[in-house]
Write a structure and sequence with these properties.
Rossmann fold; alpha/beta; globular; 330 residues
């Protein structure tokens, strides 16, 4: 039997979770038993934060919970069926943020993580330990072990001010006009152990249809990651998070506008750039609704593939991953 392709996915958020579920499903359909040996996910940690003395890692938790099948699919974060008694108590104390809900089961994760970090484990070691609880079928790596939480600078009342990404995203629902996104400390960060090697030895690297600015952007901003992607012998295939000129979920359009990129499947491909031109992409998956942009993508030096891109369930996501693997082979 031919060995399964070693797949590396760059991912964050709900779009990343659904895509990773599809990658695991695609491997299972190929008869791969040990999907964790074939699938490595490099996860955005730019959304992370300290709140009430505990360390939250929203994208890592979204992907972990989704792979474990314990995520709250309706809310889009936290655990299914969790209560909010502890959160109510925190609010009564005036602790935390009144607009940021921490479910009881999710809090258990944050407490365990924080304890281990305080004992001296690195975020990579903590994630490795957390990954053992459930049969995830994927190896998860944080993009870096450094704390590089995203700060958003917004224009407000004739001035500008900065706030943590989560405040901008959940409290203000991205309605305050952003003028920039920064990850303080990222210039000194290095990729987490295993990230460089996974990219170097991959058969294919997939960029999930996650927010290009605040999910994929921080991963690419870790010094060394872009170089690793340019140097790997593996094809790099991206999947458009834009369908029919609209973001599928979240508020990526606001983020793209802030950095001067149009909300279009072609413009996001242009943001990542063609590998032959100093960028990252060999191929780009566009939705059927964006078929008309295929020539524009090709003119950017990136091979376009037009496929259905709605990740309605794991089977649909697996189909997208299969299309990405086919685009990589071409
Ligand atoms: N998103 C919300 O819209 N409201 C919340 O109260 C909220 C709480 C929360 C707690 C833990 C966690 O890991 C994620 C949480 N999220 C919440 C989701 C999160 O803010 C963002 O959707 C992601 O960071 C963007 O990918």
């Amino acid at each position: 039997m031919t060995p399964p392709p070693r797949i590396v996915v760059l991912a964050g958020g709900v779009g990343g979770s659904r895509f990773v579920l599809g990658a695991r499903e695609a491997l299972r359909r190929r008869g791969v038993d040990d999907t964790a040996a074939a699938l490595t996910v490099v996860v955005n940690t730019g959304d992370d934060l300290w709140l009430s003395g505990i360390r939250l890692q929203p994208d890592i938790d979204s992907i972990t919970y989704a792979l474990a099948g314990v995520n709250d699919t309706e809310r889009g974060w936290g655990r299914a069926g969790e209560s909010e008694r502890v959160n109510a108590e925190l609010q009564a104390w005036g602790a935390g943020w009144p607009w940021f809900t921490l479910g009881d089961l999710d809090l258990g994760t944050h407490l365990a993580r924080t304890g281990w970090l305080r004992e001296g484990l690195t975020p990579t070691q903590v994630l490795e330990r957390m990954s053992r609880r459930w049969h995830l079928g994927a190896r998860l790596l944080p993009m870096t072990d450094s704390e590089v939480d995203t700060v958003v600078t917004v224009r407000e009342g004739g001035g500008i001010r900065s706030m943590h990404f989560q405040e901008w995203w959940t409290r203000h629902r991205a309605t305050l006009e952003p003028v920039g996104f920064e990850n303080p400390g990222i210039a000194e960060a290095v990729p987490a152990p295993g990230v460089g090697e996974a990219i170097a030895t991959a058969d294919v690297v997939l960029i999930a249809p996650s927010n290009p600015v605040v999910s994929i952007g921080p991963i690419l901003a870790v010094p060394g990651v872009r170089d690793a992607l340019r140097e790997t012998g593996a094809p790099v295939v991206g999947v458009s998070p834009i369908i029919g000129g609209r973001v599928v979920r979240g508020m990526a359009d606001v983020c793209l506008t802030a950095i001067g990129v149009e909300t279009s499947a072609s413009a996001v491909a242009g943001l990542y750039g063609a590998r032959g031109d100093g960028g990252l992409l060999d191929a780009w998956l566009l939705a059927e609704e964006d078929r008309g942009l295929a020539d524009e993508v090709a003119a950017r030096g990136i091979r376009p593939s037009v496929v259905p891109l709605w990740m309605t369930d794991a089977a649909a996501s697996a189909g997208i991953v299969e299309a990405a693997l086919a685009a990589a082979r071409r």
